[in-house]
Design a protein that fits this description.
The chain is α+β, with helices and mostly antiparallel strands and 221 residues long. It has helices at 131-148, 150-216, and strands spanning 10-13, 16-20, 27-35, 40-47, 53-56, 59-62, 67-74, 89-97, 120-129. The chain has a five-stranded mixed beta sheet. A four-stranded antiparallel beta sheet has the order 1-3-7-5, with no helix packed on it. The N and C termini lie far apart (144 Å).
């Protein structure tokens, strides 16, 4: 039974494994397992290259109508595969188990085909993706998204126009504020000059009055 067939105890999303392949770097792929039944279902993940991949959890029990997440990690590789083609495969086995069964309670022959249990199998292929093709794919997705949503583009342009208008208004207000500050400063300076001149004039009048007074007084012999 393959991943695309119906009436499965467990369905897998996605139905294949894609790893971004870079030398000397690990890569991972997440699989979501969904229990499509009202029973407890045990599962086990196997691979044709167990030394290249790290699967956690590789065995488990999914409760009725529940789901779980499996992370498959590709270990760091020292060389590229020929033509970036991968011949590795994964096999997901599943079978119904008694209620409230824990992983530790699973018998050793749970996934043995010779046992009386019905065991379903789901085969998963493996694909390697280069980082450059991944980036190009994302760029094309963004481009097509922008091309298919003119309303979004017009909304973005409107926001930019409103932002520019707000900036211009802010600059205008700043200029007006600077003008008012300079005008107020000039007023303060002119007021100070007038008061200073009045004060100096008053002192001159007092001094002149004293001089006249002293000159007009009769001298004593």
């Amino acid at each position: 039974m393959t991943a695309g067939e119906g009436k499965q105890l467990i369905s897998v999303h996605p139905n294949d494994l894609k790893f971004i392949f870079e030398l000397e770097k690990q890569s991972f792929c997440d699989l979501k397992l969904v229990n499509n039944t009202e029973h407890h279902v045990a599962f086990k993940v196997k691979t044709t290259s167990p030394k290249k991949y790290f699967v956690r959890p590789n065995t488990g029990v999914v409760q009725p109508w529940d789901s779980c997440l499996i992370r498959v990690t590709l270990q760091a590789q020292r060389e590229y595969p020929p033509d970036m083609q991968c011949k590795d495969k994964f096999l997901l086995q599943s079978t119904i188990v008694p209620s409230n069964t824990e992983v530790e309670d699973l018998p050793a022959d749970t996934f043995n085909k010779e046992s009386a249990r019905e065991i379903q199998e789901c085969k998963l292929k493996v694909f390697y993706v280069s980082p450059s093709s991944q980036v190009n794919s994302e760029d094309e997705g963004l481009k097509s998204s922008s091309e298919q949503s003119p309303d979004s583009n017009s909304a973005v342009q409107q926001l930019k126009d409103e932002r520019d208008a707000a900036v211009r208004q802010t600059l205008q207000l700043q200029q007006e504020l600077d003008f008012l500050k300079r005008r107020r400063q000039r007023r303060n300076d002119s007021g100070f000059s007038f008061m200073f001149a009045a004060f100096v004039g008053l002192i001159g009048i007092v001094v002149g009055f004293l001089l006249n007074l002293s000159l007009s007084s009769p001298s004593t012999e």
